[in-house]
Every structure is written in structure tokens, then in C-alpha cells.
Design goal:
4-stranded antiparallel sheet; alpha+beta; Rossmann fold; Rieske Iron-sulfur Protein; 42% helix; 3 domains
Amino acid sequence: MKILYLFGPNLGALGTRDPQTYGPETLAQIMDAVSERGRTLGHDVSWRQSDHEGALVGWLLAARAEEVDAIVVNPGALTHYSYALRDANIAVNKARGMFDPVIDGLPRLGVLGVLLVGVYRVSSGGADAGDVVQVAFLFTLIGFPIRALGWVLGELPRSVVGWDRIQRVLTAEGGSVSLEAAALADGRMKFYEVELPTGHARFFAIQAGGEIHTNLDACEICGPLGYFQEGSALVCRNCTSPIAPMSLDRRGGCNPIPIAHRADGGRVVVDVATLEAALPLAQGH
């Protein structure tokens, strides 16, 4: 299971802010222990912290695309007044919250329908109680395949997204990462991940203004906290700064770190050496 922990304002100061009240351990130390426990149980645990409400909202809304199975949120003081954070929490689970009860309720509705018709038929002499019980029992039996179908329909989108992400990682062969240029025609950010000897590199590609841009999912100020897309603009998850597509090739500020790429037929190729050279810039200040 992939589990994401999100922490709000001031929680990054644990260990130094009033340690007599909140304890001497830092958030990183606490989450190191949580992550280690998660690994022993077979879970993939990650965590993020920001003092900015917009960053937490962006992380919540991006969780579905990142195939997160469970989210644990400690929004700190935002608990009391952040309507945007509440709405993002609702949006993440709204579809599943409507889908699951419908699938679960169909067999029960069938049983109720049989009982209603059965009462009328028995009272009019057209059937006996045993017939009604048999038909109602059949509806309870078909409940299992209906719920199984519901599970498949619920998990299929996650599996498709997961396979898409796996494919992007598997294309890192021969010292380069190869992307399909046609997949970028919709103008949406596409994320890719590569394990390097020097660390984990996450970058994105996007087509804007007729050109393809490739950038690390990080900036030199906020570090590897990443970006999400809102309309045509990119937004930093940490400081919520909007980034115009025309500035994607420029270093500095909160702009994502540009990385060079080359065209190869209908594909966009990023060399692993280029990623390794850019990775130290993504540590933030």
C-alpha cells in the first residue's frame, strides 16, 4: 500500500519549537521511524510538510494521479479554518464515496424488490412464502459477483495509471529516458521517474507554445517538492507560485530546473547524464 503523510504549518519546527510541550524529536525523525515501520509491513510511506495551504491542497488533489492508496493529514492550525483543504479532501474521495455504496446496495435493493412483490403475490394467492424466500436468497448469492465487478471497476483506473507510470520508468534504457512526443500533445504535464546512482530523479515534460519542455520536478529554492498544473500555468506545491509556460526554459527563482532533451523521430530523449548533472540543483535552500 502507498501511504502519504501530509503535515501543515509549524509542524516542520517540531523538536525546536517548545520541545517541553511538543517533544524533542523532529518531524523527520518521527517520519523516519514511521517509514521504517511501514517498510517492515510492506507499505511505501512518504511524507511532505508545508506552511502553505496551497501546497497541501495541491498534494491532496495530485494524490490520485500518484496512485496513493491512503492519505494521513495533520493540517495543524489549518484544521480550524481551511475550507480549501476540506474541499480538496472531499474531492479526492467523492467519486469513490458515491461509487462504492451504489455497488454495495444493488443486491439489497434486489432483495427488497423481491420481498415487496412477494408480499403482494402471497397475499393474492399467486405464490407461497417458500418461493419468495428462494428468490430473495438468489439475490443474496449474486451479491458477491456484483461486488467483485465493482472492485474491478474501482481498481481498473488505478491499474491503468500505474502501468503508465511503470512504462515511463521502464523506458530508461541505454543511458537515456525515451518519451513519446505524441503523448505530450494535450498540453498536460507528464511525470517520469528514474533511479540514478546519485539519487532518485523525477522530472516532467510538457508541450506549451508549440514547443516541448523538459524540467526537473523541483526548483533551486523550494527543492524537490514539485509542481502541479492549474489551467495552462504550473504551480509550485510549496510556495504556490504560478509559473508561466514561457519561462520553463529559464533557471532561477521558483522556475522548475530545465534539463536538455533531444528529438529522435517521434520521441523525446533525455540523457541520464543530464539528469545526474541537474540533480544537485534540486536540493533547495
